[in-house]
Input
Amino acid sequence: MTANTLKITYGQRENSQRAARERLRRAESGEAFEEQEAAFVLNLEELDDVERLMRRLSLQLLDVITSEHPESIRETARLANRDYREVHRNLKELETLGVIEFTTDGNSKRPILRDGTEAIDLSITFPIDTNTSNSNSRQETSA
Output
């Protein structure tokens, strides 16, 4: 993984927080420490958020953003061969999740990955730690 990667995780909040606290402790005491392997870590807390991220249409837009670097929402829609309104709605959803952000140039809004990162690494850990995720996200079935 490169240093300019957005790492998206699910079910790993405790591990991420523990690692960050350890890096901070070592830095404050002057000890050597390993840098975080990603530029930014986004831990999704809800299964619904993972589902929204993993939709084919969302993944298609993320691929267009990372591979084509469109200059606007309109160009993103053209490159994805999709309706502008639909792409705008999907991009706003990805922005709400914290995966992308927009830069503004005049009247154009350019979608980019969060914090200017250039790639995404996705990691999901099972079993789900019910202490760190919303237990209502889990669907239970009975026989």
